[in-house]
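All the exercises in this workshop are built on plain-text protein records. An example says more than a description, so a record of this kind follows:
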Amino acid sequence: MSIKGGVAIVTGGATGIGRAVCEGLAARGAEAVVVDYAHSREAAEELAAQLRSNGTAAQAVQADVADERAVHDLIDQVTATHGRLDILVNSAGVTRFIPHPDLDALTDDVWQLILQTNLMGPFYTARAAGPALRRSQGAIVNVASIAGHRAAGSSIPYAVSKAALLQLTRSLATALAPEVRVNAVSPGHVDTRWHRDHLGDEAAAEVARRNAETEPLHRVSTAEDVAEVILGLLEMNMVTGQTLIVDGGRHVKYGN
């Protein structure tokens, strides 16, 4: 498939990796890019306006992927407006920063919040978008995390949700075949607002510096680095059920 002329939905598209994907889709000639958001209305509308000014039919649509009804409404709105859907990128995600030994802090509410958004959200969107994607021979890319491969990450529920998302990717790749390809990316540390908001600018910069020292490529990823891989997977016609780790090669040294 080709991104050029395609219609795409990017969940969590207002900020971070999702925003970089939206910009990359537009740059590669997507006909329409739907910027899905749950809370970041201002950022989503600003991005959609930017994309429209550059010639892409873009719109910001509020739909919390944890809400199955909202997901169905999103898909129905996009297919009714554009007549098709070719691309789905599941970038929406949440976490809570909880040290792994603090098991008492892992309340049912924390588990439900994270699993509902990070796991059920991509399932809801894939299921709702499936018929339209089958018709267009489309593709899905899920944004997982290196935390899904190892005992790390912002919290245990976050790591569990991303590990489950990797298995969901493999399962959907078989369930939606042969018409729809489903792949995933697993970013390591990415220099985004997400870390800076939690740690503060100085602490986030120091964490990024330390991580860069341990990566073979000697720098941490940007949102644009991850988006480049996502865009590549969308156009790889013989690749499905796969996960690409995007962390500058750091994972090959884990455990050493």
